[in-house]
Task: structure prediction
Amino acid sequence: MTRTTATGWLLLAPLGLLLLLNFLTPIALLLTRAVQDREVATAWPNTATALRDWNGAALPGEAIATMFARELGDSVRAGTFAAAASRLNFEGRGWRTLLARTGAALPLRQSSVLKALQAIDPRWGERETWLAIKRAAGPYTDFYLLSTVDLHRRPAGDLARVGPDEAVFVDAFARTFGISAAVTLLCVLLGYPVAYVLAGLPDRAANVSLIFIVLPMWTSVLVRTTAWMVLLQRHGVVNDVLMSLGLIAHPIELIYNRLGVYIAMTHVLLPYTVLPLYGVMRGLTPVSMRAALSLGATPLRTFWQVYLPQTLPGVTAGALIVFILALGYYITPALIGGPADQMVSSFIAFYTNQSLDWGRAAALSLVLLLATAVCVAIYARVAGMRETVLR
Result:
């Protein structure tokens, strides 16, 4: 390693350390929650350890039941059983009530703790109740990741789909990718002619025009989305203009539906398509176009076979940027769309800020991150293949 290279690495070290501590580490810690299952093990550590070794073929023995009753009583008196109860509620309803009722009846006076627990509530005599605690005993689990694809494990350990009322995440991911793909297509279709016109302008006019393209990016997404709410509402500017022109007889619904989401997201993300396209188009020379025209090709054929292939790097780069940004959108669908238009980010925000289900939020984030990584890998593969063909 040369002295110049070593100096460069030393100069980059503070920036790398800052990036590691303030960006990569928090994200990694959040994503690990997707496979961690610590609530039950934290509240009842000895019971969790014992249940991991229990084969589940019959009810647990008196030793496990006694250990559980003692730790449950301690956690109830300390007020630390709430997190474990919330985690077990994911296995089925009524766990908080069951644990609170059992904790209130402690300490037990009977010689058989297991029978005493059954006397408090018959569910303690069911193997499925203890299997639910075993599944939540941690320290690691696939529960949250399975839930992101609407699956769960039965007491026997095999996989099954959740009930129709709980199967929401597969549809949410399909909706997220569908909306992102549609917005990406709209941005490419609208951004390509805009970039083409800008690339053909003189330098002075092009620079002024670019200011108007970039200017909305300096405005908050929330402000732009709120502006579209004003424009698209039933008696907003858009409906008033359409009615004054005689194009419609009655106001049409442009907000709180998928159409409004498409309009607002396309407006917000359009500059991310125009700028890469403009950069590529501005660097092209008209020599190849003139040569094709001089050889008898029609303008349409010249564009399709000569000009468009040269601009594909800008198309793919802009489409990738827009698609990745659209995958993580939250504010615009939340304000402009209806209940059937919410994307995965809305669920992540809900589980993070309202239900405090960090495990499920982390699992959804991890799946979304993996999907983004796949998109980048596909783009890199396609770009590499294109470079090989061009050579």
In short: The mean pLDDT is 85.
